[in-house]
Amino acid sequence: MQRFCLTLDLKDDPDLIKEYEAWHAPGKGWPEVRQNDLATGVLDLQIYRFGTRMVMILETDDNFSFEKKAAMDAGNPHVQRWEELMWNYQQAVPGAKPGQKWVLMEQIFQFEK
């Protein structure tokens, strides 16, 4: 299993943040997007928010790659519509590359086992 942590910002608008969270309430996500994520090797996906900053934790199988996910996402019209819709609420974090949404964070600490 692999674990990744990514970050993204929401637009600083309380109404938009409320709408964004409503889209992510239990039972509100699009099943086609979830199925696509599962097919790419995502085992679990969690999003946390503090103010406008969000953190996503992905747990994936050992064969997961971001390149494979990007290719499958690009070929899925449901994912493309979902991402277009979500971009109404989201904005890139400082330092993101042009057009980049979720930015992979670097792990700097872990408990020693």
Descriptive notes:
The chain has 113 residues and is of the alpha+beta class. The chain has a single domain (2-104), classed as 2-Layer Sandwich (Alpha-Beta Plaits). Helices cover 35% and strands 27% of the residues. It has helices at residues 14-23, 31-40, 66-74, 77-86, and strands spanning 2-10, 42-50, 53-60, 90-91, 103-104. Strands 1, 2, 3, 4 and 5 form a 5-stranded antiparallel beta sheet that branches. The mean pLDDT is 96.
Please give the structural blueprint.
Elements: E1 2-10, H1 14-23, H2 31-40, E2 42-50, E3 53-60, H3 66-74, H4 77-86, E4 90-91, E5 103-104
Antiparallel strand pairs: 1-3, 1-4, 1-5, 2-3
Q: Count of helices?
A: 4
Low-confidence stretches: none
Question: How many strands?
Answer: 5
What fraction, in percent, of the residue positions are helical?
25-40%
According to CATH, what is the topology? Alpha-Beta Plaits
Largest sheet: 5 strands, antiparallel
CATH class: Alpha Beta
- Overall 3D shape: globular
Percent of sequence in beta strands? 25-35%
Order of helices and strands: EHHEEHHEE
CATH superfamily: Dimeric alpha+beta barrel
Gyration radius, rounded: 14 Å
Task: Please state the second-level CATH architecture.
Answer: 2-Layer Sandwich
**Structural class by SSE content:** alpha+beta
For the record, the count of structural domains works out to 1
Q: What does the average pLDDT come to? A: 96
What's the end-to-end separation, in Å? 17 Å
Protein name: L-rhamnose mutarotase
GO molecular function: racemase and epimerase activity, acting on carbohydrates and derivatives
InterPro entries: Carb_Metab_Mutarotase, Dimeric_a/b-barrel, Rham/fucose_mutarotase
